[in-house]
Amino acid sequence: MYQKCKAFLTDYGTKFFFMVLLLLSSCNSAPLDPQRTFKLTEVTTGWLDVGLDDLGRNKIVPTISFSVENISNSDVRTLQLMGVFRRCETVVEIGDGRSNEVSPADETAGTCAGEITEWDNALVRAVGREGLDPGQNTGPITMESRLGYTGEQSRDEMLQHRQFIDAKVELFIKHRSDPWIKLTESPIDRQLLTQ
After folding, report:
1. What are phi and psi of 155, to 5 degrees?
2. Cα–Cα distance, 112 to 23 (Å, whole number)
3. How far apart are CA 157 and CA 1, in angstroms?
4. Could you read off the pLDDT of 149-159 as tens digits, one per residue?
5. CA distance linking residue 79 with residue 127, whole number of Å
6. Contact (Cβ atoms closer than 8 angstroms) between residue 165 and residue 88
7. Which helix (H) or strand (E) holds 123?
8. How many CA atoms lie within 13 A of 33 on its CB side?
């Protein structure tokens, strides 16, 4: 009987110890507040000339380029960024008169209300295990959509076309295993960028 009790306590005691250790290790760092930790610098948006498509037509895609600066007092490790590209809604209201809750307009950022369905997205690893020290920046990061507009006319004429629909990009940030948090959004300027 003693051996059975000892084995039972040892088995469950070990599991309990590791559960407490796991709980304590997950409590040692609070989620980052992106607004107080990071600042985007050198932001450029526009329509990137990616050459010709498979049918020989000109193709332009929305793109954003920026650097991320650590404005906190501590280093940051393992940081991912996701850019969600959306075309601007061409209708002010959705079907039954409700406003767009998925991608509303942001007056501060100067962006439109985006379509409910995302056009495309891009994912980058901005900071690895080496970390980003306070006051340092990541260097240039570029995100571009794989989808865009194609046409037989020149790229400049495409940007001026009466049926051209503007776009925006929403930037989300993920630190370690924290959930994705929206950092900011930017309108895609109607300017042609080259590689």
Report:
1. -60, -40
2. 43
3. 87
4. 999 999 999 99
5. 5
6. yes
7. strand 120-127
8. 5
Half-sphere CA count of 13, side-chain side, radius 13 A: 6
Q: Given the structure tokens 């046409």, which residue do they identify?
A: 151
Residue with tokens 């992106």: 34
Average pLDDT rounded to a whole number, residues 126-137 = 92
DSSP character at residue 137: B
Work out the average pLDDT over 1-18.
56
How does 92-130 read in b/e, with b if 16+ C-beta sit within 10 Å?
eeeeeeeebeebebbeeeebbbbbeebbbbbeeebbeee
57-116: per-residue pLDDT in tens?
999 999 999 999 999 999 998 899 999 999 999 865 455 555 668 889 899 889 999 999
Buried b (16+ CB within 10 A) or exposed e, 163-191: eeebbbbbbbbbbeeeeeeebbbbbbbee
Q: Are 24 and 17 in contact (CB under 8 A)?
A: no
Query: In this structure, what token pair is assigned to residue 83?
Result: 């850019």
60 near 148, Cβ under 8 Å? Answer: yes
**Per-residue model confidence (pLDDT) at position 23:** 44
pLDDT tens digit sequence for 43-62: 999 999 999 999 999 999 99
